[in-house]
Amino acid sequence: MTKLLDNMNAQMNREYESAYIYKGMAIYAAGANFRGATGWMEKQADEEVTHAEKFKEFLLDLGYQPKLTGMEEAKTEYKSLADIFEAALDHEKFISKNIRDLYKQAVEEANYEVQVFLNWFIEEQVEEEASVGEIVDLLEMVGDSKNGLFMLDAQLGRR
Ligand code: MG
Questions:
Q1: What residues are neighbours of ligand 1 (ion), with CB under 5 Å?
Q2: What is the mean pLDDT of the chain?
Q3: In the 8-state DSSP scheme, what is residue 97?
Q4: Taking a C-beta distance cutoff of 8 angstroms, is the pair 38, 26 a contact?
Q5: Distance of alpha carbon 55 from its chain centroid, rounded?
Q6: Euclidean distance between CA atoms 16 and 48, whole angstroms
Q7: Global pTM exceeds 0.85
């Protein structure tokens, strides 16, 4: 049980770190004058904090004292708008894999509370991968077109 909760604590930290990673992408987007993408990344960062807080509250409810571990330096240098969204998609796939690993462990240990808690995250990750994947596809379609990037950035700003 404790090992599973230690792993849940690691996921809480990964969610906080996700926010930090998206903050780095927001800095790149702001520096490159993509105001829409900047806002998109800032909202994503806020959402990641709410994910982390869900883990934190759940752990506290189970009488587990959450630990805030260190974070890696977050990148702020990227090559393009496509580069940050491709990196975001890779990151979300990494997060999905971690959630699935936690679920697998919860099933093996017949921990129903953790399974029920993780259900929301399993669904959420399907949505995250779909929405970021769609943006990656649109960026691929637009390519180097300045008009296309301008319009796509405006669309991202409506999130
Ligand atoms: Mg998340």
A1: 15, 48, 51
A2: 97
A3: H
A4: yes
A5: 14
A6: 6
A7: yes
Structure-token pair, residue 159: 């999130």
Cα(94) to centroid(ligand 1), Å: 10
Q: Tell how far the Cα of 78 is from the centroid of ligand 1, in angstroms.
A: 21
Report how far residue 32's alpha carbon sits from residue 49's, in angstroms, rounded to the nearest whole number.
Answer: 25
**What are the φ/ψ torsions at residue 24 (nearest 5 degrees)?**
-65, -40
Per-residue pLDDT tens over the stretch 18-73: 999 999 999 999 999 999 999 999 999 999 999 999 999 999 999 999 999 989 99
Which residue's entry shows tokens 């959420």?
124
**What CA–CA distances, in Å, run from 106 to 4, 13, 43, 55, 63?**
7, 19, 30, 15, 17
Distances (CA, A) of 20 to 12, 27, 45, 140: 13, 11, 7, 26
CA of 15 to the centre of ligand 1 (A): 5
Tokens 């982390």, residue?
52
